[in-house]
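To assess whether ligand presence alters the predicted conformation, the chain was also submitted together with beta-D-galactopyranose. Input:
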Amino acid sequence: MRTVLPFNDGWLYCPEDVPDDAGRENFEPVTLPHTNKIFPHHNFDNREYEFVSTYRKYFKLPEPLNGRHLYIDFEGAMIAATVTINGHTFEEHRGGFVPFSYDITAYMREDGENLLTVHLDSSERKDIPPYGYVVDYLTFGGLYREVQLRYVEPVHTTDIFIATKNVLAESPIVVFDVQFANDDSQTRTCSFSSRFVDTDTSLVDYHSDWTDLTIPPKSRVNHRIEMSVSDPILWTLDAPVLYQWEVELRHDASDSQSIIESQCGVFGIREAEFRKDGFYLNGEKTPLIGLNRHQTYPYIGAAAPARLQRRDADIIKYELGCNIVRTSHYPQSRHFLDRCDEIGLLVFEEIPGWQHIGDAAWQALAARDLVAMIKRDRNRPSIVLWGVRINESLDDDGFYEEMNTLAHELDPTRQTGGVRYFQESRMLEDVFTFNDFSNTIVEPIHTPHLVTEFNGHMFPTKSWDQEERLIEHALRHAHIQDKQLGMDNVVGAIGWCAFDYNTHKEFGSGDRICYHGVSDIFRIPKYAAYFYASQTPPEQRVVLQAATVWSMGDRSGGGNDPLVIFSNCDEIEVTIGETLLGRFQPNRETYPHLPHPPFQIRGLGMRWGEDFGDLHIVGYLNGEAVAQQSIDAEGLPHALTLEADDNELFADGADMTRLVFKIVDKYGNRLPYTNQVVTFEIDGPADLIGENPFALMGGQAALYLKARHEAGIVTIRATTPRLPAATVSLTMRL
Ligand code: GAL
């Protein structure tokens, strides 16, 4: 039988390149995902993660081989891994963003202890994409994704690609393209069948017949099964229904005990098409509003466990109201993509790179990355476009024709794009994916035209910037999204970017952060995030957020005029102190195409003196009050708050959650110019990851809590001068 076992626990780590005979005392125990170094959230240099480290794992075979082959599967190691098993060294794997595997069968000790070593070079090697020139993001280091052990029989599947055809016809077709291998030196026979069920109701349950296969020695064969489905439930953004597929391989079809392998996964039935006048999901025109996402986090680099990865997808869909994300600029964690499939968040996924194209060997790695990315992710309904160019590189027709062809061969069901920053570029792909930094939307030359970046470095904005800048930042996003929604020859716009991120010295604000996010590096919203959130249909979530600190002297010249509010209410009522200002409508004149334009209220008529009172806003939908926000005119610290995103963690040594802390006014609004020091104490079996004490930036920040291998209650207590302490408790479950 095929068995896949997690292999993330019990690793030993040494932050140096040590030989196999170095004693265990040089190592510390770690669990994957693992970063080769923990950092402060800013003010550090990439050279600090650029070293060779050594990972070791001593292990006994968890199951006997029984004639099976044993593979070790790495989901991602940054950036070049040399793997040795019991003295046998495999060829170095180059590239940090795609999975790789080794057949370790021949080197295993069946009865004794085995030693697996990974010498991991995390330096920014010019021979490996994205490096070779400068890059505006950090790759960090470490075995930062999970590892599995995989036992397979001599006859096994090597690839299962599930596609759908004629989705909008009466009877769509589900196509299973399966590749089988026979590693044996004799011809082997087997039978296989495929099946799929609807995961929610199990009302749909399709089985193929059993097919007998004869596979010559040491060879691979492909087999296709097509099954037509009546009345399938389509995968949509609001109801992303997933079907479970199963592929079973038996020695003898009639003997259910003779299973060779049984695999399952999920897929969705949907049709996604970029046309000249728009993106169509299941035949329905769907304007795309999105943001780019880097996979990096404060403190832990790229080594985020499943929970944090999944949460980013939730933030982008539910907190930021986007319907598409671009995995800039590389394939991202399967956990992030799993969640995109589950919640209905579209994905534009692309190969690693940044402006630079290297030599032939470098290009071969880029092509390898493309193949690995598509093979890993082509069953995902969320993915609607493959990025087959190096982000913002110059044209290289030979290379890019090849990449485009490769993508189409591997996945005839999806269109391709390739991100560039100049319109004169040759359109070799299906969709012209364009980074538009004109501060508006340029008239397209090629269609379909998808804007894949805008804003970013054109207007870096920190959470504690003066409110005029934060408002301008938000309105720039609003302006561009409004403009694109009004253009029939633009299919969507994906802004730069969702979250602030760490970067190299050539970029960023001097503290090695690019403050380009609509949310900060901790994923805490700036005003621009409220703009995105406010585009959510109010039936899903009512949003009402004033873009102001509500003070009389923060803006140039003083006052609060115009007052900007992001909301999906159709009307809002504003009261200052005891004075009712009236009801206001969104600014449809300036933003005619946005579903929910910002409210911009002029003529507040406030003077210094007695007129300045608390701000009260009530949001109305169809005349009914549905939301409200108040902001204290006193502006004084009222409380320190501490909130965890989760109540429980798995005590698996890897699970993490975010702890957000803020100093707030009496209504709970963060006070952005409060830079007090907050100190944390922890009691119980978990570890705090982050700076402690933390000098607040913009009145807020976050730490992370990491589980150990121990169950129990964990309590974190935060203190700061002149305010009561804040505490939060979580349960660690085995
Ligand atoms: C683009 C680039 C992004 C990011 C952005 C900042 O040119 O593709 O990675 O650097 O600029 O605005």
